[in-house]
Amino acid sequence: MVEQRLIRDRACSAMGGLFNRCEEESLVYSGFSLLSLYFLVPRARIEPFRSRMLQVASELPHRLLLSGPWPPYNFVRSLPSIARTV
Q1: Domain limits for position 52
Q2: CA-CA distance, 74 to 24, in Å (whole number)?
Q3: In the chain, how many H helices and how many E strands?
Q4: Is 63 helix (H, G, I), strand (E, B) or coil?
Q5: Is residue 29 situated within a structural domain?
Q6: Distance between CA atoms of 48 and 12, rounded to whole angstroms?
Q7: Is residue 24 part of a domain?
Q8: What is the DSSP string of 35-71?
């Protein structure tokens, strides 16, 4: 997981100023590590973000999939259950 942290740090550093927040998920599946990074990018910065991320991806020794933009699902937290009184 140290390597994943280095990848996350490198990507976030390279993307500085182009996103507001970053969330991550990691898992191991069939012996392979998967790191998912989610960036909350203002609409006006989507194209500069995409261009820079593709440049960063070309410099990494890992495969990278860039998709989106997507609705900000990964930045919404569930509300606690509210007890209803009848």
Answers
A1: 2-63
A2: 9
A3: 2, 2
A4: coil
A5: yes
A6: 14
A7: yes
A8: EEEEEE--GGGHHHHHHHHHHHHHHSSS---------
pTM: 0.76
Q: How far apart are CA 50 and CA 66, in angstroms?
A: 8
Looking at the DSSP bridge assignments, the partners of residue 40 are: 21
5-37 pLDDT tens trace: 888 888 889 888 999 999 888 888 888 888 888
Q: Residue 71: inside a domain, yes or no?
A: no
Residue 13 carries which side chain, given as an amino acid letter?
Answer: S
The C-alpha angle with vertex 63 and arms to 60 and 68, in degrees rounded to 5, equals: 105
Q: How far apart are CA 52 and CA 5, in angstroms?
A: 19
Which tokens go with 72?
């900000």
Q: Extract the tokens encoding 38.
A: 């989610």
